[in-house]
Specification:
Layout lengths: L3 E5 L3 H13 L3 E5 L2 H9 L6 E5 L7 H10 L6 E5 L4 H9 L4 E4 L4 H30 L11 H15 L4 E4 L6 H10 L8 E5 L5 H9 L16 H4 L4 E5 L6 H13 L1 E2 L8 E2 L3 E6 L3 H6 L5 H7 L2 E4 L10 H9 L3 E2 L1 H9 L5 H15 L4 E2 L6 H4 L15 H19 L4 H8 L3 H11 L4
Parallel strand pairs: 1-2, 1-3, 3-4, 4-5, 6-11, 6-12, 7-8, 8-11, 13-14
Antiparallel strand pairs: 9-10
The structure holds adenosine-5'-triphosphate and magnesium ion.
């Protein structure tokens, strides 16, 4: 479908010229005589991608129309054409939310250039709104994004197993969301009024780990000045998450087995049996079956912790979720479709965690509102054929516009292998205009 543009102007001649220029470029054009008529048309459902309006008109002028449209919360971009260009009216227009303003007399190229950008911008905004709606609608577990079929199955499984007390083993490569799933299970269960405590079994030496898990009595070892309760006691009636369970020593495995069998254990250095009611969720990125074969993991423990297994997919196996995740990590900033493409097509050895880090970095680097390919690490943007970053886009509209134009021109010129005629044709502006802009921004072929 061709993009739809509404042209608002009271002078028949101007209407004709402008709609002619736009029509020639394949836009669908609707013409209105003044702001009142335009608002009426917009109110009756019709979808437009852009409005180009004159300022001076009978009844409702361009500025009043613009502010009415914005009050109605419509995101549609508006380009203002002004014959009496004072700096004030231009600034007012931008303040009211105009996308751009153009002074009379204008060159057709100016209008086309601005219109094309405005429509691209509108597309980006509506894509983002769409993603936002999808986010709100679909995922049922708090903080967990995944519309991909496999992830939806996992979400359903999580909801089902949350109600039970069975031990769960979550398997997945690093950064695939194992801890997040464990959390979701706890918060969807009846245990959610009690604690969820996580411990990384690979991070501590055996004696310290045991003391963390089971607590210790005063004098149990050098430095044990006081007795201390461990996470099994603290998380009583709650959930304990044993991360990297494949790293447990065989001795600790045996003690853990007892907790799983009858909920009983002793504090380190203690004699008293303590009984607790905890649910155990374990996670691993190792193949426990292999560890069993090597004699490094107890088979009986394996069956105890693995009553229900949840296998998390690699991020590259659910590329359809990447836009949703990006949007989630990015909000409220936005991202260009080019940058998004790069992210979707990357392999993500570090899975969701890596994606999250990349977005976090991009958000920190980019002062403006929209993440561009050059905000991504080079190993991701490599091959995108992009110019070095120009980091001048700030809060200021004029500066942001310069940044955008410059990057736009460099990019399109690169893609055309430096052929100005071809690049200008693709950009929809004259060769001369293109060349002047290159000179203006110091862009070399
Ligand atoms: N489906 C998801 N939706 C939203 N955020 C996610 C999702 N999966 C993972 N994340 C985020 O990615 C990061 C890594 O997730 P998490 O810590 O759960 O992974 P992990 O599998 O435990 O990783 P590791 O093996 O490195 O410990 C976290 O910040 C988490 O919030
Ligand atoms: Mg983890």
């Amino acid at each position: 479908m061709n993009p739809r543009i509404m042209v608002v102007d009271d002078e028949p001649n101007m209407q004709k010229t402008l709609s002619g220029i736009l029509h020639q470029q394949g836009y669908d054009v609707t013409v209105c005589g003044d702001g009142k008529e335009a608002i009426e048309i917009l109110d009756t459902e019709e979808q437009f991608n852009l409005i180009i309006t004159d300022i001076k008109m009978p009844c409702i002028d361009g500025m009043t129309m613009l502010s009415t449209i914005r009050k109605k919360n419509k995101e549609i971009p508006v380009i203002i054409i002004t014959g009496h260009a004072t700096v004030d009216s231009a600034i007012d227009a931008v303040k009211l939310g105009a996308y751009d303003y153009i002074r009379k007399p204008y060159m057709p190229d100016q209008i086309l250039f601005s219109a094309r950008r405005a429509i691209e911008h509108e597309k980006l905004v509506s894509e983002n709104l769409y993603l936002h709606d999808q986010l709100k609608g679909k995922f049922q577990l708090k903080g967990l994004i995944g519309n991909n079929k496999k992830m939806q199955e996992i979400c359903q499984l999580v909801q089902k197993v949350s109600k039970a007390n069975a031990a769960i083993l979550i398997r997945g490569e690093s950064g695939t969301g194992k801890e997040l799933i464990a959390n979701a299970i706890h918060y969807n269960s009846q245990r959610n009024k009690n604690k969820f405590l996580a411990i990384n079994c690979g991070a501590l030496p055996e004696n310290l780990l045991e003391s963390e898990l089971f607590g210790h009595e005063k004098g149990a070892f050098t430095g044990a000045i006081n007795s201390r309760i461990g996470i099994f006691e603290t998380a009583d009636k709650g959930t304990v998450f044993l991360d990297e369970i494949g790293d447990l020593s065989l001795t600790t495995q045996m003690k853990l087995l007892r907790v799983l069998q009858d909920g009983k254990f002793r504090r380190v250095g203690g004699t008293r049996q303590i009984k607790v009611n905890v649910r155990i969720i374990s996670a691993t990125n190792k193949n426990l079956k292999d560890l069993i074969k090597e004699g490094l993991f107890r088979e009986d423990l394996y069956y105890r912790i693995n009553v229900i297994a949840i296998d998390l997919p690699l991020l590259k196996e659910r590329k359809d979720d990447i836009p949703l995740l990006v949007k989630h990590f990015l909000a409220p900033k936005r991202i260009s479709s080019e940058a998004m493409n790069l992210l979707v097509n990357f392999d993500w050895p570090g899975n969701v965690r890596e994606l999250e880090n990349v977005i976090e970095r991009a958000v920190a680097l980019r002062e403006g509102n929209c993440i561009l390919p050059e905000d991504l690490p080079e190993y991701i943007s490599a091959g995108a054929g992009l110019a070095p970053a120009s980091k001048i886009a700030g809060e200021n509209f004029h500066e942001a516009r310069i940044t955008f134009e410059r990057d736009f021109l460099i990019n399109i010129l690169k893609k055309a292998s430096g052929n100005i005629s071809l690049a200008s044709k693709r950009a929809g502006i004259s060769r001369r205009h293109f060349y002047e802009k290159m000179k203006l921004y110091g862009i070399k072929r």
